[in-house]
């Protein structure tokens, strides 16, 4: 089974992410934790909530975290897809999920997720990373801690550095 | 200047280590071109026509002489012995080796310098008036606010992969725009309310390049504690909604235009409402800490101004330089001196390693060990006592930095153009040189008065051609180099985009056309009327008639 970084540890990935193309061909399997696209979630929410196994939702760039806000208490996981690492919209989405909506479940970066972006992703609220399959996930783990200093606050500590120093 | 705390220094050192590892992985084939591209850009490294170009950050144009000497040794040891002052107050190296770049960054870090976020789709260097802190017309020193913004922008995790690059400038002069805030993604105008409390008028959506436009006022009055929250709100709206499909439509100016300023403001204000009063709110203590880095140097109180008057009476060349290249200072007995890096035949803004060292020596002796870079690609010694001006002038003259042409037709702002840049449609340096040679009579140049000529080799507008009183843009016509001319742009009192004159010209025609434009001006000007005012009074038509007639 594929690996994923969750809370700083490399673990087995127990979630299966289904794309909208896949969901045109098949139904959501009865067993196992799944991640579905936002549109699918909005269309099938009640049925999905009845599943015994967990369901998470994946946001694509251009979709609004606000559309998921009311459902967040029922969700253990929200994934944010990065079709290309250079598309930085997902950083604002993660931050919004954490600070505006107070989401405390897993926020998972999926797609073009690479070592050199993990630190920033972590700071804006991602706590899980599906590193791109062709990359060494052990090495990618180094990407979580390149800096011991940060000027701004972030979702973990909203205080900028000068407020932390004097505290 | 801002003085680093241990944490500022640690951050730089960690950055060098991170980048060294990234470069190693790239050279070992573990990072793709495209992946390394985004990382190296945020460390200032472009790959150019002939070699990489490295852009070194000079926060709001401030350098101490230790830093200037370090730049000199870097250009000598890692490059061809000269570097280039850019139109955003940065310093560019033209021929570093990719494999050397981590070492260059380590050298820079040893003097509190870096190349962080000098390219790439992130928040770039914060710029301001080159006379900040000494300009008698400013309402307060803008540099502490630049530094506050710099720290917020540095490695801001949410805004490292924006749709496009993002430039912020700060201005503290009430009725002029020396920082060009009107053509920045965000322009911050410092204002005071009736109690004298600092606040900011925040503009967004200006920019040059393709589709040049001036910004719109988004925040009419943002109280100083809220500055960062307000900027963050604007950046978040841009990060979420800026166009990412077409790089030519990706700047914030296109978003502001597409939504309209009112809608954009509504979105930004909604974000701001949530951030206001939170942990980003600036504290009096922190602002005071940063302001304490920008205190006045030990100005002398015994400056002998009679000595200056004597020298002005006796030396015509000195007199001319004094009136052209020095500026009034907030402190009696002091002037700000601009070193023009515009000697005919040199690339505008270029400076050699030895010249950098000479400038550092002069700054140590005459200007409290501080040097500034300007967006007109010159350098400034901001605090020179009037009784030392004559000595300084003689030494600057020997170095070739006393050409008395600041703000005149031969003080041309130009990008490197086709001689160096892979994106160029046309060369720009020979055009600058042609104009400088045509106007080689200093008396005539002085008689013409203030005139901004700006040249860019392509639409990217590195030479800010849109805001030149006369703007020259390299265009490609069936593989040949042509030049399009605009008139009436302004980056002096206010920012305004110039108007196209008509069909473009071949390179050998350009100097002749400039000559005709000048002739029309001379035939029409009123007593003491500068070029731009004549243009604004008589309009484009008289110029067109003569040039195309
Ligand atoms: C030597 C090679 C250079 C290359 C390849 C280069 C590349 C570019 C490119 C691609 C752009 C537009 C794209 C973008 O917005 O990022 C740009 C914009 C710009 N460059 Fe350069 N540049 C070079 C040199 C310079 C120099 C020497 C200066 C300073 C004189 C400069 C100053 C600027 C400025 C101010 C802009 C922004 C104009 C605006 O949109 O406001 N560049 N450059
Ligand atoms: S304006 Fe064009 S030609 Fe000139 S430096 Fe910029 S990208 Fe190159």
TrEMBL record, chain A:
<dbReference type="Pfam" id="PF06073">
    <property type="entry name" value="DUF934"/>
</dbReference>
<protein>
    <submittedName>
        <fullName>DUF934 domain-containing protein</fullName>
    </submittedName>
</protein>
<dbReference type="InterPro" id="IPR008318">
    <property type="entry name" value="UCP030820"/>
</dbReference>
UniProtKB/TrEMBL annotation, chain B:
<keyword id="KW-0411">Iron-sulfur</keyword>
<dbReference type="InterPro" id="IPR051329">
    <property type="entry name" value="NIR_SIR_4Fe-4S"/>
</dbReference>
<protein>
    <submittedName>
        <fullName>Nitrite/sulfite reductase</fullName>
    </submittedName>
</protein>
<dbReference type="InterPro" id="IPR006067">
    <property type="entry name" value="NO2/SO3_Rdtase_4Fe4S_dom"/>
</dbReference>
<dbReference type="InterPro" id="IPR036136">
    <property type="entry name" value="Nit/Sulf_reduc_fer-like_dom_sf"/>
</dbReference>
<keyword id="KW-0479">Metal-binding</keyword>
<dbReference type="InterPro" id="IPR045854">
    <property type="entry name" value="NO2/SO3_Rdtase_4Fe4S_sf"/>
</dbReference>
<dbReference type="GO" id="GO:0051539">
    <property type="term" value="F:4 iron, 4 sulfur cluster binding"/>
</dbReference>
<feature type="domain" description="Nitrite/Sulfite reductase ferredoxin-like">
    <location>
        <begin position="346"/>
        <end position="398"/>
    </location>
</feature>
<keyword id="KW-0560">Oxidoreductase</keyword>
<feature type="domain" description="Nitrite/Sulfite reductase ferredoxin-like">
    <location>
        <begin position="53"/>
        <end position="110"/>
    </location>
</feature>
<dbReference type="GO" id="GO:0016491">
    <property type="term" value="F:oxidoreductase activity"/>
</dbReference>
<dbReference type="GO" id="GO:0020037">
    <property type="term" value="F:heme binding"/>
</dbReference>
<dbReference type="GO" id="GO:0046872">
    <property type="term" value="F:metal ion binding"/>
</dbReference>
<dbReference type="InterPro" id="IPR005117">
    <property type="entry name" value="NiRdtase/SiRdtase_haem-b_fer"/>
</dbReference>
<dbReference type="Pfam" id="PF01077">
    <property type="entry name" value="NIR_SIR"/>
</dbReference>
<feature type="domain" description="Nitrite/sulphite reductase 4Fe-4S">
    <location>
        <begin position="119"/>
        <end position="273"/>
    </location>
</feature>
<keyword id="KW-0004">4Fe-4S</keyword>
<keyword id="KW-0408">Iron</keyword>
<feature type="domain" description="Nitrite/sulphite reductase 4Fe-4S">
    <location>
        <begin position="410"/>
        <end position="547"/>
    </location>
</feature>
<dbReference type="Pfam" id="PF03460">
    <property type="entry name" value="NIR_SIR_ferr"/>
</dbReference>
<keyword id="KW-0349">Heme</keyword>
